[in-house]
Please model this.
Amino acid sequence: MATPGAAARHFFRCACFCSENLFLPRYQLHVRYLEEQQLRRDYGSILKNRGCMSPEDFDQVLAELEKEVQRRKQLVQEASERKATIAKNYIPLQPQVYGLQEGFLVPEFLAAVQYCVSPGATLPGLLQHIMTLSDEKMIYRLPVFTQEFCGMLLQELEHFEQSDMPKGRPNTMNNQGVLLHELGLDEPLVTPLREHYLQPLTALLYPEYGGGRLDSHRAFVVKYSMDGDQELSCHYDNAEVTFNISLNKNFSEGSLYFGEFRQVLSTETQYLEVPHVLGQGVLHRGGQMHGAMPLESGERWNLIIWMRASSVRNKLCPMCGKPPQLVEDEGFGDGFTREEGEPGTVDVCTLT
Model:
């Protein structure tokens, strides 16, 4: 079921990475940022309504945005350097997790996948094997990993977290966690999980969103704690399909919540609350607005897989809503590919 030739393809990111969807934690706001006057014009009123009252407040916003833009411009080189350092110096605590084994997966998950690859498999038939959390929102839950595997993976992640190895941020909104590509878990663990087990499911669940053509991903683990990230603002993912798997249970609250598809939550929005269950994963469309409620105690660890279909996103970048302007990247990048006859890449630094 894997997309042929995906591993040998060259992937890119869109230049909008340095200007779109920049997050301001203090104001719980994502913005587009090109320069000061554009920011004042587009977001001045909403920033003021959220507490950005003084010139000093606005100067702080500008400083935060400039710092984030510079971080993004340097991200590829720094990520490559971190990965090389980790590969050379890090000694795993649980080496067995660096390779997907069928014994890590629960029988219910294997049965659902087996149904999907059987002749005549249909969506109604698959829905007999998994839990529908919202038919309208196309959100589903299913058991994935054994508790034993979750425990081993969590031990490995905590061991890495406590090491002196360099660490990157999982994404623009989460400060605590691990990038699996840098740790070396991407190719041996996540890629076969996506190609051989998840894509048969998503092909039936999300055919119009590229579910049968997923050829790349971005995988990371996020950590929530009382002295770190405690909640997650409403947002949508840079993905066609997202899989969110709970890795532990020694916490309280922090449930996921879901709104509408690419529509910002308002006071009238009816949202769906989804609690975390150890070893179980929640599948949803990347464009589904969602967030995480505040943690009340303990630590919460989740494995997040943003799955992407280049055949979908090559036409329209999901973050800027325009045909992507390709920028060189490493690994799977942001899942864009250059088709034969397309122009070359652009210099990301000239676009911001």
Notes: The radius of gyration is 20 Å.
